[in-house]
Amino acid sequence: MRIISGTLKGKKIELPRDKSTRPLRDLVKESIFNVLEHSNKIQTKIKDAIILDLFSGSGSFGLEAISRGAKKVTFIENYFNAYEVILKNIKNLNCQDFSELKNYDCFQFIDGADTKNSKFDLIFIDPPYKEKNINILLDKIIEKKMLDKSGLLIIHRHKKDDIKLSSKISIIDERFYGISKIIFAN
To answer: CA-to-CA distance for 138 and 141, rounded, in angstroms?
Structure first.
C-alpha cells in the first residue's frame, strides 16, 4: 500500500501482518479524497484540516490526509499490533509533527475527549464491519460537539450494512466501491 498523492506520493505504508485489521483499499481511499476535492456538496477540505481518524488500522487514511496538507491528524487505534504499525508508518514518513497517536478504544477516547478548545474539521470512522455500536459512537461525537460546525463525518461500512444511522446526523452523500459503502455526513 502506498500514499496516492501529495508531498508523500508513492511512499510505502506498512500493514499489520495478521488478518485482525481490514486495510482501506487504495481505490476506496482515492475515491474518498476525490469526492472531498471535487464534490460541490462537500465544503470541508483537507488542506489545513484537523482530522480524527478512528479505528485507524494502518493509518493510511490519516497519512494520506497529511500528505495532502492536513494540519494535524489524531490516530486512535486500540489493537496494539496495528498501533505499532501506525507508529512505524508515522516515523518512516517523518509525520511526527502532524500526528498524534493514541492506543485507546474509540468509545473510551470519545468519552474522555476534551473538546472545549478544539474541534475536528473531519472525522473518519472505519470500524470493523462487525461493529454494531456505530450509532452510540456517532451520538457521542455529536453530544460532545467534537465536529466543527462546518465539519464532515466520513463513515466506512460494508455495502450490505443495514444499520440505520443516527438521526442526529445528516447524510450528504453515499458512495459504493466494491464491497465498501462510504457515507459523507455532518
So the answer is: 5
Q: How far apart are CA 8 and CA 81, in angstroms?
A: 24
Q: Cell digits for 129?
A: 464491519
> What are the pLDDT digits (tens) for 117-155?
678 999 999 987 777 788 888 999 988 889 998 899 999
Q: Is 141 among the domain residues?
A: yes
Residue 52 lies in a domain: yes
CA 88, CA 75: separation in Å to the nearest integer? 13
Rounded CA gap, 43 and 98, in Å? 22
Answer yes or no: is 79 within a domain: yes
DSSP 73-108: EEEE--SHHHHHHHHHHHHHTT-GGGEEEE---HHH
Q: Can you give the CATH number for the domain in which 33 is found?
A: 3.40.50.150
Contact (CB, 8 A) for 185 and 157: no
